[in-house]
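for the recovery benchmark. tokens below, seq after
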């Protein structure tokens, strides 16, 4: 069992944090604070506490909370969609293995090939969402002909769904599957196709650009106005305190940016590779159990 990381270990982690993106901006704000302090030392009238009312803290806070909540909602909806895909593939693979009658030895091979299309569907969807071409990840679950054909398709997961549907219809025509079982399986396949739509909606509906621009502008104005508000009281501490406050606010915004598109390769994106590998193991276990079901 993997040991959980300690509190301090997590707090001091670099990988997976927003430090690489936020630190340069925070340091820039801190340096600007030092510059204002130097001007203050030379008796330049830079102390302007009145700037504190330009952007009230509560307004900026509410905007940041809304931004983060909106991004996390997209992240969580993506995770729920992939959870549905995992559960649906388990149910559909189980029904295919158990319900479809094997009249000839070739029927067993066709059934295995059909069940392997389920994790192939997930892998193809992952690549589709990441705008990546069909690669060797899919080879183990497809025939050579299917693999080559999939390379020419604009929407590989939808093509795989068509293959699964075609297989189920053929089994029904050959009376290896009754119409009620067929209907149940088709409904499960519909749920898998619905997951494509959910993920594509998240991917192709970004946070409105005007909102993102306006929030960045407010953050910049607020961070650069801090030294004028603080220099009279904080003196030489103006730079470090401004950097710290800017780091906090910019970090919250950056978290929202990183999780609003949850299907990529970033450390804070959904672990789609692990989810696909889990589906592969589930299918392999089911096939192994079905092969040994008559053993004592």
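predicted aa per position
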């Amino acid at each position: 069992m993997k040991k959980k990381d300690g509190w301090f270990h997590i707090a001091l982690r670099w990988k997976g944090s927003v430090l690489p993106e936020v630190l340069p901006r925070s340091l820039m704000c801190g340096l600007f604070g030092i510059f204002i302090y130097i001007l203050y030392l030379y008796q330049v009238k830079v102390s302007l506490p009145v700037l504190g009312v330009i952007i009230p803290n509560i307004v900026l806070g509410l905007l940041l909370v809304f931004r983060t909540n909106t991004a996390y909602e997209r992240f969580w909806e993506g995770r729920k969609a992939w959870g549905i895909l995992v559960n649906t593939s388990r149910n559909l693979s189980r029904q295919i293995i158990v319900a479809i009658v094997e009249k000839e030895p070739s029927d067993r091979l066709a059934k295995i090939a059909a069940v392997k299309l389920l994790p192939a569907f997930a892998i193809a969807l992952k690549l589709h969402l990441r705008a990546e071409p069909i690669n060797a990840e899919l080879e183990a679950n497809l025939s050579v002909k299917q693999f080559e054909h999939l390379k020419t398709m604009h929407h590989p997961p939808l093509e795989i769904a068509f293959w699964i549907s075609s297989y189920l219809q053929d089994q029904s025509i050959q009376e290896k599957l009754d119409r009620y079982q067929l209907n149940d399986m088709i409904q499960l396949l519909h749920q898998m196709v619905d997951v494509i739509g959910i993920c594509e909606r998240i991917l192709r509906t970004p946070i409105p650009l005007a909102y993102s621009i306006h929030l960045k502008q407010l953050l910049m104005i607020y961070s650069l106005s801090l030294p004028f508000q603080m220099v009279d009281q904080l003196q030489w501490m103006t730079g470090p305190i401004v950097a710290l406050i800017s780091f906090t606010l910019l970090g919250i915004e950056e978290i929202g940016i990183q999780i609003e598109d949850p299907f990529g390769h970033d450390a804070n994106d959904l672990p789609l590779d692990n989810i696909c590998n889990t589906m592969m193991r589930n299918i392999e276990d089911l096939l192994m159990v079905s092969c040994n079901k008559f053993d004592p």
